[in-house]
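Final report, Chapter 2: Outcomes

The project's central promise was a pipeline that accepts a single protein chain and returns its three-dimensional structure in a standardized token representation, suitable for archiving and comparison. That pipeline is now operational. To close this chapter, we reproduce one record exactly as it appears in the project archive, with the input sequence first and the structure output second.
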Amino acid sequence: MTFEVHAQGAVHVFDCFACAIHRMAPICEHCRVQVIGQGVEADGSWYCGAHCARSAGRVGIVDRV
């Protein structure tokens, strides 16, 4: 069984969730880890958390707990 993910005008076909996550998850611009679950988007760039965003020079970003 396969399933489709429609994102940003493209259709991606996968046969397992792990492959979909690996292909679709954004990459942290600072530490290069895949962002799965929560992340921080700032000015079109993705970060795994506020610490990496601040380390990359983004200001005003805080974690919410």
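Archive annotation: The chain has a mean pLDDT of 92.
This record, like all others produced under the grant, will remain available to the consortium after the project formally closes.
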